[in-house]
Structure to design on (388 residues):
């Protein structure tokens, strides 16, 4: 069959959660032995090379760049799938083209979360209206819906009345190339064998000091204000700094001044968005990974830390317990004292750290991009055949 994929997010220059998912799921779909039985059309906003998806010049895969200045999904992509209809259209990031049902190909959409329903204050009113409307349209128009966690699947039933049989839970994976590089010390200098350029980039962030790490967008939903305040309460008792990696998000301005207000401005670092290889080095060298988010549809950074052999502290809400398993300290993200206590335990209790490291390395084996691709292809085949 002909499978069309909205690859617009996968070709973004700045790769965060949905962009990373889109790129990885496309890459692993194309790598499946069964992929050669189908023709694949990747719709993009610009011309890209198939090497972006780990593929060479494959006769069954083509890139179709579609250009328009605004409303790319509802204009350029919509017009393309009407003119050259695929047997099934896969949208890895939320929004199916707005077309009359007779013109819309059989479609599958991945919904990552409906966080705007849980934390409406984290979005402007126009954003909430758009997110709610586009999600409602996508889950109703799709033949099948992929949810990246059972928590998200439950939310779709709760908020949009989608039947359980229409939703397939397909967990994300962790890149196979990320092996645990945990060394006896958290010092960045121990990573020199990994490449001088990366070590130099990491050293520019933290110098030679030990550190705890957060990776994700800098925004209120990630609960960084409480994380910084919790750190300020124990700062005098620990020898490590706090490094918060990620691009600037909406309503992030106050977070950049919070460290100064709490008297820890020199020990909290905001290096901004960093390349994946530098983040890998930081993750491997961190004393622990701190991720007390208020809400996550999946929480891939938790798994990436566990695979690096780094102990994890995260929240007991949303999908995070489902993903972290028994391999993390789970805290109430609203309780600053609980966050501080968990960080102190991870600083002082080496037996606990080693227990979490071992459990984390075991936990990540539950998740695989190859498995996700196999399960996603099965959903696409069901949708193309019209099986409900």
């Amino acid at each position: 069959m002909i499978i069309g994929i909205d690859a617009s997010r996968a070709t973004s220059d700045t790769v965060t959660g949905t962009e990373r998912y889109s790129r990885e799921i496309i890459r692993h779909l194309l790598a499946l032995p069964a992929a050669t039985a189908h023709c694949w059309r990747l719709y993009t906003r610009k011309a890209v090379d198939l090497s972006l998806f780990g593929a060479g010049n494959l006769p069954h895969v083509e890139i179709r760049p579609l250009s328009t200045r605004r409303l790319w999904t509802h204009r350029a992509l919509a017009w393309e799938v009407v003119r050259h209809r695929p047997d099934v259209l896969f949208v890895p990031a939320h929004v199916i083209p707005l077309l009359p049902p007779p013109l819309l190909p059989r479609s599958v959409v991945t919904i990552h979360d409906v966080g705007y329903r849980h934390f409406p204050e984290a979005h402007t009113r126009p954003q909430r209206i758009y997110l709610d409307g586009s999600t409602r349209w996508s889950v109703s128009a799709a033949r099948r819906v992929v949810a990246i966690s059972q928590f998200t699947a439950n939310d779709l039933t709760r908020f949009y009345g989608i039947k359980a049989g229409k939703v397939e839970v397909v967990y994300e994976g962790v890149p196979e190339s990320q092996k645990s590089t945990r060394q006896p010390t958290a010092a960045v200098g121990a990573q020199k064998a990994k490449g001088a350029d990366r070590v130099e980039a990491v050293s520019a962030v933290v110098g030679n000091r030990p550190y705890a790490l957060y990776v994700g967008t800098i925004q209120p939903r990630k609960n960084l204000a409480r994380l910084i305040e919790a750190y300020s309460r124990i700062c005098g008792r620990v020898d490590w700094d706090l490094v918060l990696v990620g691009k600037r998000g909406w309503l992030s301005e106050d977070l950049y001044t919070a460290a100064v207000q709490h008297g820890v401005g020199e020990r909290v670092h905001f290096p901004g968005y960093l390349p994946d290889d530098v983040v890998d080095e930081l993750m491997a060298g961190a004393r622990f990974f701190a991720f007390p988010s208020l809400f996550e549809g999946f929480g891939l950074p938790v798994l990436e830390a566990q695979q690096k052999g780094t102990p994890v502290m995260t929240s007991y809400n949303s999908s995070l317990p489902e993903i972290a398993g028994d391999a993390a300290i789970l805290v109430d993200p609203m309780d600053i004292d609980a966050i501080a206590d968990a960080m102190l335990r991870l600083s002082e209790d080496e037996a606990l750290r080693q227990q979490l490291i071992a459990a984390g390395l075991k936990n990540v084996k539950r998740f695989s991009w190859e498995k996700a691709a196999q399960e996603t292809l099965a959903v696409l085949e069901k949708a193309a055949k019209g099986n409900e």
Remarks:
- Residues 178-195 have pLDDT under 50 and may be disordered.
